[in-house]
Amino acid sequence: MFRVKARCTCGPRQPFVPTTIERRAPGPRDVHIAIAYAGICQSDVEHARSTRGKTIYPLVPGHEMAGTVLAVGSEVTRHRVGDRVGVGNMVDACRRCDNCRAGLEQYCSGGRTLAYGAIGRDGQPTFGGYSEEVVVDEAFVVAIPDSIALQNAAPLMCAGITMYSPLRHWGAGPGKRVAILGFGGLGHVGVQISRALGAHTTVLDLTPAKREDALRLGADDYRLSNEPDTFTALDSSFDIVVSTVPIHADLDRYLGLLALDGVYVNLAVPAVPLSVPAAALLTNRRSIAGTRSGGIAETQQMLDFCAEHGIAAEVEVIAADDIDAAYRRLLAGDVRFRFVIDNQTL
Questions:
Q1: For residues 38 and 35, what is the distance between their CA atoms, to the nearest angstrom?
Q2: Using one digit for the tens of pLDDT, what is the confidence trace for 110-165?
Q3: What is the pLDDT of residues 184-233, one digit of tens each?
Q4: CA distances to 66, 217, 250 from 185, in Å
Q5: How large is the greatest C-alpha to C-alpha distance in the chain, in angstroms?
Q6: Which of 103, 61, 115 is nearest to 298 (CA)?
Q7: d(Cα 115, Cα 254) in Å, to the nearest integer?
């Protein structure tokens, strides 16, 4: 075991404070990583404030990690010292179930291990990326292409794969029309990916202030979701609607945007259950779906795709002392478009 600096919170209303945490000594298949940057995700806030009621304190969040390899175990073949690597929201899975064997570790039926706030197979709580270093099995470490700066790559470990996976799964591409609900940390990456896949891409958001950025990053259209005329004009026009917003949306209205066999994909976890009129599903044979991030192989595929198409997260780099302020600003929507912690400030 060895100790590293980190930032933790000890309760739902407690600030982040400096601490030290223990990391396991690297084993034969482990990769020891110096974390350069850690993205701040909406789910970090939800776990830190225990809005889902499952938080294990003290909590060290962070599942968007980008850094360099310090050391590798004797059996590691995928990564070498000095490599640029990333770690997302999973650090282990059973690897035996049908889903794991299919490369869908995010749906592991044997119990995946999350990067933080979980209990690892050693019986100890996991700690995330708001820390100096981490030790992760090589099977859950991905390579970051040289063309993506580490601070811009960190959010791709969650926001990138969480958008890429459903867009690929439901066939976004030439001839398809995609609507992305919410132009924030996930949405601004999703627009870039959808456009690069070849789909006609529309952003739906509450404020006209984001229009210029959305069009700059590849949106073909930008509509205000708080204007009733939007839903009339776009009735039955999309093949895929991806919702990134952690609020309860009026599903009757949004399902009305779907064309024949269209799908509404929910990525967030609203505080109240989703509710939908049955008639909205019957029309056009519509579907509602959900998705979890993506598997490790698909995450690597996403990073390579982003490198090929010049896609990256747009970030505001902060010092570790500013985590609490960043959380407040994130909840207020005051970020363009992802906060990333400079871990040298820990």
A1: 7
A2: 889 999 999 988 888 999 999 999 999 999 999 999 999 999 999 999 999 999 99
A3: 999 999 999 999 999 999 999 999 999 999 999 999 999 999 998 999 99
A4: 17, 13, 21
A5: 62
A6: 103
A7: 33
The span from the CA of 200 to the CA of 211, in Å, is 16
**Which residue has 């060290």 as its token pair?**
60
pTM: 0.94
Distances (CA, A) of 173 to 62, 194, 263: 32, 7, 15
**Residue at 344: amino acid letter:** Q
Q: Where are the alpha helices (DSSP H) in the chain?
A: 42-48, 98-101, 150-153, 159-169, 187-197, 211-216, 228-233, 251-255, 278-282, 296-309, 323-331
The structure tokens listed for 303 are: 């990073």
The dihedrals phi and psi of 2, each to the nearest 5 degrees, come to -145, 165
Helix, strand and coil in the chain, % to nearest 5: 30, 30, 40
The Cα 257–Cα 124 span in angstroms is 46
Spacing of C-alpha 67 from chain mean position? 17
Contacts (Cβ under 8 Å, ≥6 apart) of 249: 181, 243, 270
| 276: nearest Cα among 267, 266, 268 | 266
C-alpha–C-alpha distance, residues 301 and 298, integer Å:
5
Report the distance separating Cα 236 and Cα 228, nearest Å: 15
Question: CA-to-CA distance for 341 and 65, rounded, in angstroms?
Answer: 10
Q: Which residues pair with 39 in a beta bridge?
A: 340
Residue whose tokens read 């990690």 = 65
